[in-house]
Amino acid sequence: MVRVAAEEYAPVNISKAILLGVILGGLIIFGVLGNILVILSVACHRHLHSVTHYYIVNLAVADLLLTSTVLPFSAIFEILGYWAFGRVFCNIWAAVDVLCCTASIMGLCIISIDRYIGVSYPLRYPTIVTQRRGVRALLCVWALSLVISIGPLFGWRQPAPEDETICQINEEPGYVLFSALGSFYVPLAIILVMYCRVYVVAKRESRGLKSGLKTDKSDSEQVTLRIHRKNVPAGGGGVSSAKNKTHFSVRLLKFSREKKAAKTLGIVVGCFVLCWLPFFLVMPIGFQFPE
């Protein structure tokens, strides 16, 4: 989130400023283009128009807002060594920073719940996760993110320094605890619980499907043997067997897709959490014990 500026700043080192500008500018451009590509990919391919992919688009939108509206000013702040945009914009910038980061983390939380439902109920998933429920979930994500981010704009912060070239992160203890819990720890707990459940369900379902596959193969071999011996009794058993095989095949295909998606998103979520965890561990401790 927002870094604390140094209280005293030296003249800008041109060579250092250019190097930082190239590196940070490159990262910002890469982030903007990457998130735009994600959004366009879903928008331009009809087979990706699903609730799960809408959640991914929401994640890309939050990250696009962060990279396009927050990070450029962060880069200038880093290069200059002081805040050059005034007190009011500092407060708005910090609030947008918290809004985008919180929406991104909560978006991952929604995705983890979605993957749990997909793996646990692959056949019933379309009736459980409807488009209307998906939209409601995304509205809740942004509403909660807004509630967490706007507190400092209404006075829930420490007194601002007189020097307007200093743009500080909000160190008010109550808000620090509130934002850390709402923006990270509660979503993290939900994410961990959901992916633990996904692992347990996937392991159980995999064993069940493998067992069903072996039984199905065994039955097929017996039928083949009977045909070879010309001892197949007349009746409707073949129709029933075909229906069971079709149902089993659909269930296996849906479960395999959901499991693969859960694995991929689990890796993404894991990397994201590892990147954020140090900040949210240090922030509450650092503000309670500054020295």
From TrEMBL:
One example GO MF annotation: alpha1-adrenergic receptor activity
Pfam family, one: 7tm_1
Subcellular location: Cell membrane; Cytoplasm; Membrane, Caveola; Nucleus membrane
Domain of life of the source: Eukaryota
GO cellular component: caveola; cytoplasm; nuclear membrane
Primary subcellular site in the record, as a coarse category: membrane
Keyword Acetylation: no
Topology class, membrane: Multi-pass membrane protein
GO biological process, one term: phospholipase C-activating G protein-coupled receptor signaling pathway
Transmembrane segments: 17-43, 55-85, 91-113, 134-155, 175-200, 264-287
Domain G-protein coupled receptors family 1 profile residues, every copy: 34-291
Tagged with keyword Electron transport: no
Family assignment from sequence similarity: Belongs to the G-protein coupled receptor 1 family.
Protein name stated in the entry: Alpha-1A adrenergic receptor
Species whose genome carries this gene: Neotoma lepida (Desert woodrat)
